Amino acid sequence: MLSITWNIDPEIFRIGAVAVRYYGLLFAIAFAMDYLVFTRFFKDAKLPIDLLDKLTMWAVVSTIIGLRLGHCFFYAPEYYLSHPIDIFKVWEGGLASHGAAAALPLGLYFFCRKYKMRYLWLLDRIVIVVALTGFPIRLGNLMNSEIYGVPTAMPWGFIFARNGEIIAKHPTQIYESLGYLLIFCVLFFIYKKRETLRNRSGFLFGLAMILIFGFRILVEFIKETQDGNVDTVVRNAIGLDMGQLLSVPLVLAGVFLLYYAFHHAPNDKPFVGNVRYKSPAKK
Question: Is the full-model pTM beyond 0.90?
Answer without folding.
Answer: no
